[in-house]
Amino acid sequence: MSTDAVLFAVIAGAICVSALMVVVTRDIVRSAVWLLFTLIGVSTLYFLLGAEFVGATQLIVYVGGTMVLVVFGVMLTAQRQFLKIKTAGPEWVMGGILALALFAVLVNVSLSLGQKHPAPAVATLPSAGPLGMAFLSKYVLPFEIVSVHLLVVLIGAAYLARAKRRPKDGQP
Predict the structure, then answer these.
(1) Are residues 79 and 10 in the same domain?
(2) Nearest one of 36, 41, 43 to 59, comparing CA atoms
(3) Same domain, 63 and 101
(4) Which of 17, 69, 113, 123 has a 20 to 30 A CA-CA distance from 154?
(5) In this predicted model, what pLDDT tens digit does every residue of 100-150 receive, in sequence order?
(6) Which residues are registered as beta bridge partners of 27?
(7) 85 DSSP assignment
(8) What percent of the chain has pLDDT over 90?
C-alpha cells in the first residue's frame, strides 16, 4: 500500500469516529467539538487529494462559519434544557434506518462510478480562475442559499435563547 492510501484510510477512519461521536454524544458542547474534528478531517482529505482550493473553502466556510454559529448558538442557549440532548428509542431506530439507506446509496454510487466512465490517463484540475468565475456566475444562487442558511441558524439560536419566563404572582 502506498503512503497516500494509508493516510487516506487513517483520516477516513478518524472522520468516521468523530462523525459517530457527533451523533452519540449527549452533551451539545462536546458534540460541536466532534463536529469540528469531522469538518477538519474532510478538509484534510481534500488537501490530500490535491484539491487545495476546495479544502481551503471547506476550512473557511464550514469550519469557520458554521462552527462560529454553533458556538454562538451553544453560548446563547446555555440553559439546562438545551445542554443535554435526549433521544428516544424510535428516534434512534429511524436515524439508523436512514443512515443505512444513505450508506447503501453511497456504496452503490461509488462502485458504479469507475465502471461507466473510465478515468482519463492524465487528470487535470481546473485552476482557481475559472472556478471563481463559475462561483460568481453559475453558482451564485447556492452560495446565497448557504448564507441565508447560516443567517437562519443564527436567528434560530437567538430565538431559542430567549428565556420564556412565567409571570410571578399577579405581575404581567
Answers:
(1) yes
(2) 43
(3) no
(4) 17
(5) 898 888 788 777 766 655 555 555 655 667 777 777 788 778 777 877 877
(6) 84
(7) -
(8) 8
Reduced to 3 states (helix: H, G, I; strand: E, B; else coil), residue 84 is strand
Number of compact structural domains in the chain? 2
Q: Domain span at residue 36?
A: 3-85+126-161
Measured distance CA(15)–CA(23) in Å, rounded: 13
Same domain, 78 and 154: yes
- Cell digits of residue 169: 404572582
**The 3-state secondary structure of 111-161, one letter per residue:** HHHHHHCCCCCCCCCCCHHHHHHHHHHCCHHHHHHHHHHHHHHHHHHHHHH
| Residues 87-124: b if buried by 16+ CB within 10 A, e if exposed | eeeeeeeeeeeeeeeeeeeeeeeeeeeeeeeeeeeeee
pLDDT in tens, 29-63: 788 888 889 989 999 988 888 888 888 888 888 88
Q: How far apart are CA 28 and CA 81, in angstroms?
A: 11
36/100 same-domain check: no
The whole-model pTM stands at: 0.57
Q: What is the spatial distance between Cα 61 and Cα 46, in angstroms, rounded to a whole number? A: 14
Q: Residue 171 falls within a domain, yes or no?
A: no
107 and 143 belong to one structural domain:
no
Integer Cα distance of 128 and 53 in angstroms? 7
